[in-house]
Each structure stands twice: as C-alpha cells, then as structure tokens.
Amino acid sequence: MTTTKDLTERLTGLVGDVPDVTEVVELATPGPEAFVRRNEQLFAGLAEAAGIPLDASQGGLRLADRSVYRGEDGGRAVTFHASGALTLHAGVDPLDDLFDEVLPDEKLRGYVDDQVARLGLASLVDREDTLTFERLWKLKAAGADREGKVSEPVLTRAVGAYRHAVRDLPVLGRASGSVEVTGSGRLSSLTLTLRRFAGDGSGATLDKAVSRRPEDAASEVAARLSRLLEGREEDVRIEPQLFAFGYLSLGRRRAQSVLAPMYVAAVTVDGGEEAERSAHVVAVTGSEKQYLRLPVGVRTAAERRSA
Questions:
Q1: Would strands 169-172 and 237-248 be described as parallel, antiparallel, or unpaired?
Q2: Average confidence score pLDDT of the chain
Q3: What is the signed CA dihedral for 251, 82, 52, 127, rounded to 10 degrees?
Q4: What is the C-alpha separation between 64 and 96, in angstroms, rounded?
Q5: Where are the domains of the chain?
Q6: Where does the source fall among the domains of life (predicted)?
Q7: Residue 275: pLDDT band by 50, 70, 90 thresholds?
C-alpha cells in the first residue's frame, strides 16, 4: 500500500522551513548530586506556589535513577538523576475535584496558563529561549452499570503541553513541560524535562552545522521503516503524522551534553485485520556531521496478531 518513495515524498511535505545552518549548543552536565540539589530548591518554590504540602529539603528516597520525595496528603516529587527532569504531584485523587461540565478549549487553556504563570515556569528558561504552549489534552472518565449502559463522559483533568525552543528551534521529544489542572483550576501535576535552565552555564555554540536536505532525511526514515517491516511496507498502510526539524531531547532517563540538529518523524503502521496497528518515532541526524549519538532500539512494526 505504501512505497518508500511515496513515504519519502509525504514526509518531506510535512516539514516546515529548515535553516541553512544550525548551531550546535553545549548543555550543562552537572551530574546527579547537582541536579538533586537544584531540584530540591525548585520543589520548595513550586510546591509553595501550588499549595502542595511537601518539604524536599529533608531529603528523599534515593533510588538508582531517581530521587523520590513524599509529602503530606499524598504529595510527591521526583528528580531524574541523568537529565535533571522533575515531576511534582499534588496527591489529588483522580476522581476528585472534577469539572462540572466540558468547558471550551479556550477556557481550559486559561486554567493551565494561569498555573504556568503562578509557578513562574517561563523564568526557568534562559532569556534567549522560549517556553510556549503547544497542545491541550482533555482527560475524561465514564462508568457503566451491570446492564452495560454507559454514562456520559465527565471531564476529569485538563493538561497543557509546552515546548521549549532554543535558538528559535523546538526541542523535540516528549513535552518540555506539562501542567495538569483539576476542575477548580488547582495544579494536579507538573512535569519539566528542560535540557537548558536559566543560569546553568549552558548555551555555548560548539559548531555551526550545515543542515541536511529534508528529502535525504525523509529517505533515511523510509529506509529504516522498510527494514523494521522486513520489506513488507507495500503490504501495510503507513500514515505520516509528523516530520519536524529541530533539536532533540533523548528523554529524562538519559544524560545529554549537546543540542544538535535532528529530524524527527512520527508514523502509524496499519497492517489490516491480520496485523496490529502500531506507532513509531524515528529520529535521524539533521546535519551531514553527526553530533548526537542516538540510543539503539529495534522493535518489529505491525507484528502478526496471535491466533
């Protein structure tokens, strides 16, 4: 159903403007202890602003890859040692403080933006950078009685996703920040996966890389998917969802010393009735020279369903 040539063309059509030259940016890598100390200070201000009774200054439970802090009323915070990413949870039960009705997106956007302002998240990134709203998610729940009659869905939480941009390029990967609010507008949870914080000493330009042509990068993505599908790409339906150029964050459980230009593709693979539907994210270098080595992981796409 989908040839590699067709996929290449469709991916190329999704990417926006690509600069001719992109800066390779140095990141601060202070190490787990420094990340823990920094985030303990951040938790103090964030928890106070959100009204969450949690005192991280007393220390937390130190695990192999993260430190966990628990407060009163179920409040919890986590620091990830490799990246310095953090999460903060208010401890509100998922079915407490629900919305009375499904509000318009503009109203829900106001709720999450208010929390972003109250928490001062914009001040955490460098003045040369931005942290901007990207997408709104609505979490809903419904119940069913013994006869199978399903109730009308109830809006339980609104989640705003925010994207960090460095040198006017987005830092791709999971959301740079997400803010979840309850029906009364309270903070339910916060995640921050920023690779560059204000005043952390990062931001030096290590090199200026000539950007790779989108067609070449899209062709590599198509070739990788073909290998994952073991040459069966014409037997399945492949739908490109995203093809973007920018920097890439490797995830909160991985250390990273540079921001380098990358292309990131997101596609879905539908093998029909006899195979599963699957989603795949493929990242390839955005310059002729490779500055960031990606972790290796292979999973067969559109695997056959068990009988």
A1: parallel
A2: 92
A3: -70
A4: 33
A5: 4-26+205-285, 32-192
A6: Bacteria
A7: low
